[in-house]
Specification:
Helices cover 37% and strands 15% of the residues. The protein contains 18 helices and 15 strands. The strands form 4 sheets. The chain has an 8-stranded mixed beta sheet with strand order 8-10-9-14-15-13-11-12, with helices on both faces. A hairpin with a 5-residue loop joins strand 14 and strand 15 (454-461).
Length: 496
Amino acid sequence: MSAGALLIDPFGQAFAKPHQRSDQLVEYDALGLAELIKMKQISRTELVEIIIRRIDAMNPSLNFMTGKAFDRARERAGSSAFAGDSRFAGVPILMKDLISIKGLPLTQGSKLFADYYPDKSVQYVDALEASGLNIIGQTNVPEMASFIMTSNALFGTTHNPWDMDYSVFSSSGGSACAVAAGVVPMAHGTDGAGSNRLPASATGTFGMKASRYRQLSGETDGSNDIAKTNQMISRTVRDSAAALDATEDKSGAHYKSIGFITSPSVRRLKIGFVTSRDDDLLPVEPEVRHAQIRTAQLLEDMGHHVEEIAWPVDDHAMAENYLKFTASKTAPLVDLIRRKFGDKDLLELGLLTPLLASSLQSYSKYTAADIAQGMANLNGLVSVFDAAFDRVDVMLTSVSPVVCPRLNEHSYNDLWDEEIENFILARLKFTSPTNFGGVPAMSVPLGMSASGLPIGSHLIAARGNDQMLYELAYELEEASPWKNVWAPNSLHYSMK
């Protein structure tokens, strides 16, 4: 980039090149950075080095990384790996340490898998790389996604850029933290019970969960998980929409392709604003409730019809069924440990955190019949949400009933008991049912607590209506441009 050159802002403005180029580039989203590469205002290699400097500057305090793929990213940036017309043109990205990438460790935040390296990438990762994204590292998770806070014994605790004493929720917490801190404009996450939306809510970023079967497989066997989807946490809606297009299953086997959604719709929607019940597992705290009331008012001001509706899911039954589902998912892990280490007590092994080890012991109480009944009940949520969307186009709830927790509220060193079980499950009450209902849902950063912690608004649509949510997200982003709102512990401030 020549001295005195102009940088073209992806949102339409031009400004003089700053003395510290990386300072100004913090304001760019991934598509904006890709445009700079295509215009030859910056090279892929230069951008990789900028992101590495950002990681080195911010990770020591925030602790969002598990693995560095710097040399891999440098090599790919200097090679012909990225087609000239690829959408993202070599923009670096961070991947959650919970997906198989050939040649990179897949620790899942656990000492048990500290030395495991997959021999191939999953379809979803191949599609991301084909779109021009350059993997530069991996982000922190709770051990095997088993805790509500992003913390583990292998890599430690991820801090919230808005307040270092608070959690970023989980399990895509490392990715959300990196985006909120300005290290990368978007990062990969998975969502099996709210794992993209909860961290997005906690960090003031945009988090989407697509419809089940909407995207290419993120599993090593090429299947689609019953609950888990893959998608980005980002600062802008368009980055998320572009990544969804890049990883969408275009076969038409389940849904007609929606492609790259780029703008709002003129259609006005009927939105059901979910109100609390007296028998809720965890009532929505007033501060969070008020944030959703403000979102409901904003939607009405935009011309949408908003009416109060009841949450169609029984919280207590959902919690019990979710535990049975978790028992089914963790049974292969227990079998693996038994084959490798015999019948030694899981806690005494020392390879799992006390929280995970004791939870595995707790799940052993469920019989095969219990698990089968739980899964049948969870599968029934498809028809529950289908019926609910006969009345409304979109539901509005809080992402979590409460703001993100303090880091000292619970720890992976705790033993699993009824208190911590309820602590986790109550915070999933609005997110986890949507995973089993197969519906798309998103956390939109529209609220803020009195203490300065972000509060997301949770918007849900019927199965396959991902386009409706993206169009609504664009409209909300225009009405309340959150990309200009930065965390105190972010590069927006710390590198200026």
